[in-house]
Amino acid sequence: MERIEQHASFGGRQEVWKHVSATLGCDMRFGIYLPEAALRGQHCPVLYWLSGLTCTEQNFITKAGAQAHAARHGFIVVAPDTSPRGAQVADDAAYDLGQGAGFYLNAVQAPWAAHYRMHDYIAEELPALIEASFPTTDVRGIFGHSMGGHGALVTALRCPGRYRSVSAFSPIVAPSQVPWGEKAFSAYLGADTAAWRQWDATALVATAQERLPLLVDQGAGDEFLGTQLRPELLKAACERTAHPLELRIHPGYDHSYYFIASFLADHFAHHAAGFTGR
Amino acid sequence: MERIEQHASFGGRQEVWKHVSATLGCDMRFGIYLPEAALRGQHCPVLYWLSGLTCTEQNFITKAGAQAHAARHGFIVVAPDTSPRGAQVADDAAYDLGQGAGFYLNAVQAPWAAHYRMHDYIAEELPALIEASFPTTDVRGIFGHSMGGHGALVTALRCPGRYRSVSAFSPIVAPSQVPWGEKAFSAYLGADTAAWRQWDATALVATAQERLPLLVDQGAGDEFLGTQLRPELLKAACERTAHPLELRIHPGYDHSYYFIASFLADHFAHHAAGFTGR
After folding, report:
1. Which of A7, A34, A36, A60 to mutate to test the interface with B (most CBs of B within 10 A)?
2. A274 Cβ contact partners less than 8 Å away, ≥ 6 residues apart
3. Nearest neighbour of A7 by CB, restricted to B13, B67, B254
4. Among A54, A145, A172, B12, which residue has the fewest nearby CB atoms (within 10 Å)?
5. pTM of this structure
6. For A12-66, what is each residue's pLDDT tens digit?
């Protein structure tokens, strides 16, 4: 593991690390914000951020303004890349398949199955690495944006007990029913749509054993709202099983980091409440 | 004038506009944040941000987290590009001369004099355009980073009465005495170093008629500190004439936007105090 960036930030430090991922079979990078308490060796809870299509570990750490909130709450914040990377890793010319578009699942179809195991990376390998390398508690939260909002919801729903809190901005809530998800799931998982349900938050919430409250923020001016995101599908599924969901639709906001930054303080407060059982 | 981006942000709107600059003889872009009060037509004070070498209007608006502060204070924030641009505009292959490196002065040497009049653009044309096009008061502040910190200090010192407040992050305080400035001033202004003094904050402060308090933040871990920035030169000049300067050296901080974001709230507070006479 090699540190390739470090910047003092809000009394703590924003770092970027590179490591060899055994799960993915390639080098991976992640951003990690260490609040001042962590720099002093105090053990801190960890929030995992999953980014959207085309992103790397850089987008969130440079554009969201998250460090101010992480410093205030004393959280470590980890921002991984969005897919395996490298010349040996299968790719596609489109922005919504292959590198930069891992969809936080474990692929079973060729040529993707060899490297595309982002679920195992995010839920197993990366937390183990973080918790062995930095002063963390075992308190974890997970959140993300768009494809990463899908990833956060699915990862939390698939791993009961693993996360104290989950939230999402503009998530792809029902990938089985929208073009981005249909394309990715067909490639990564194959034609059997029954298998898709295990990677679809709207499907998973129907059988969730843990009633982790979901906070979802969505811009009403988001160009992908009606075609790719469709939060009403998650809302209906949550209502059917009385799964707790706070879905907030914000007039005028789009799909950008300007939207994320505007409401990020509320997400940190949501995770802080989950972390302390309030 | 054409709006080319708009994003809801912290209850207001981040926009990017393109216009034809008569001063510079080319198309120019600027970012403008309009707080919610401005969207309702209420007249708001305006803060001008000048960016550093290689930057465009995008760096500050995407990386600094300024919108949160602008929304809280009810300020319009304008972030122009750092030089004239375009195929007809003289350029240099180096990152520190030509396009992206206008140094906020009026060039007198060929081939630069034809377009490189960033001082007149920043101090005259742009404020006139902003004040004619958006709901502003006549209360103005100016701040910036690195080359833009130099630009903010020089612009305020050259135009007494024009700005209520000025501040800078990691400014080039004495361009006449450091490599970045020597290279740029030789090209833009020529070999007569007496002419350079009119574009050098440390020289200007010696004869300043207005005692506008200067706030300067500098990272002690900044790679350019000892060679290009040298804040001690400004400090000594201010001490000689009792010009008010608050110079803060922050251990560990570097030259990046992570540093700017960490202390930006204090700069907004400084400008708010200047705006209200507190």
Report:
1. A7
2. A141, A164, A165, A166, A212, A213
3. B254
4. A54
5. 0.97
6. 999 999 999 999 999 999 999 999 999 999 999 999 999 999 999 999 999 999 9
